[in-house]
Amino acid sequence: MDIQLPTFWFKDNLRLVVLLLCFVVAYYAFGSRRSKLGDFPVIGNQDSADFRTALEEGCRKYPGSAFILPTPIRPTVILPANLVEEVIREPEDVLATREEVDDRFLVKYTLMTADDHMIRRSVNLITRNINEIMDDITDELDLAISKVFGADTTWQAINVHTPILQLVAKINSRVFVGLELSQNVEWVDAIINYTVQLMTAVKKLLDCPAFLRSAVQYLLPEIRTIHQSLASCCRLLQPILEERRQNLAKPSFKKPADMIQGVIDYAPQGQGSILEFQGRSQMILGLASTHTTSITLQNALYDLAAYPQYLQPLRDELEDMIEQDGGKLLTKSFLMLRKMDSFLRESQRMNPIDLLSLRRKTKIATVFSDGTAIPAGTSIAIPVSIVRENDILTNPGVFDAFRFERLAEAEGNFNKYLYVSTDGNSLGFGHGVHACPGRFFAAIEIKFILAHILLYYDIKFAEGTRRPKTTYYGTNIGPNLDVEIMFRRRSKDT
């Protein structure tokens, strides 16, 4: 006998059926992963606007032990600082850096994918030829510095976020792709906006179930803007890339030390001469360098304004070095600016750009020396905050601009405490083979801009204004973007 249910049953219970299906999908997607990680305590909530409080609570409650931070995409197992060296020793087929980045930034929707080998070798090309490109940086600064900070010898209030971002984008573009595009507003805007659109798109995609993202991507204006930016970059690059191809066919042509050439030379399977690949690579290189450098520089300016006692010692050191070098800023000059280097390392220590470092995805089940067992397919990381809590620093919660200069002098080891140096106590640039390859160029760029500001401007916060509190979103950290700094052009006789 057939059993027939009334049609209203389907209508009334359709919502229930959908909810049950969603529950089943969620259970199998997340329940099994949670059971595999069941031995670790979970700190915080996945819906948190930021994870700073949860991370601090976990580090306080479970010192020397692992715990789970319920980050988007998948939970992250936070490892203790004593496992830093073990994490960096594991090869990519055990602890994967690239795959973790791909997952976190949803690269199949946001175009943020590139060959790591190509990126590193291209960046190293710039670093090796830094002396040759110093004139380009100087020219770009000379063009922009007065526009950004003005020529008025009376105090002016300036919100530095957008001007600094554009200045860094122009300098990077000058070095990466040449003068023509560094002065092209459409190019600079496309490079800057790619990061903003990408982060917004990722946030929106994370808010919907994974099985819907392939469809939802076509509804997001940010994804459309990303593709439009790529199209713009390709159009602007086309005549430059075509001219480069023609020149490379000439035996007498000397290859420029820029990112266009780096991508041509080091891209896999000769893809560097393909316009779309070149355009996408330049967007990714811009993303990796522009916003991080501008955030670092903005934090440094906030610290200069907040701690005026350091302004004159930094300026004296700089002017002495210029005098020794015959009145000109040289690359080697920046290597000898111990106080500036220490100041930047301290600023980064107090204001990193992320709560977490050494992010990896386990490719296979991994057991560390302390017995911590991590199943395959798990995200892991180590807190950057260890540089504010380790035992080697006196008063680690206090901003002390020249602490690393003193440590270097006491130990007779300046290389150990350089701004660009990495170790288990300094994770701002990562550590090991996957440490940021662009940190050497970024350090020169930041020091060059900071030197110009020190030489030509006085800087302070307005009366009654203090250094703004840092903002946290997810695991990301950034400066408050709404605060103004006071600048005054120094008189010509100084």
TrEMBL record:
PROSITE patterns: CYTOCHROME_P450 (PS00086)
Coiled-coil annotated spans: none
Cofactor(s) in the UniProt record: heme
Protein name, entry field: Cytochrome P450
Pfam families hit by this protein: p450
Binding positions for heme per the UniProt entry: C436
Family membership noted in the UniProt record: Belongs to the cytochrome P450 family.
Gene Ontology terms for molecular function: heme binding; iron ion binding; monooxygenase activity; oxidoreductase activity, acting on paired donors, with incorporation or reduction of molecular oxygen
Keywords: Heme, Iron, Membrane, Metal-binding, Monooxygenase, Oxidoreductase, Transmembrane, Transmembrane helix
Cited SUPFAM superfamilies: Cytochrome P450
CDD domains per UniProt: CYP503A1-like
TM regions (residue ranges): 14-30
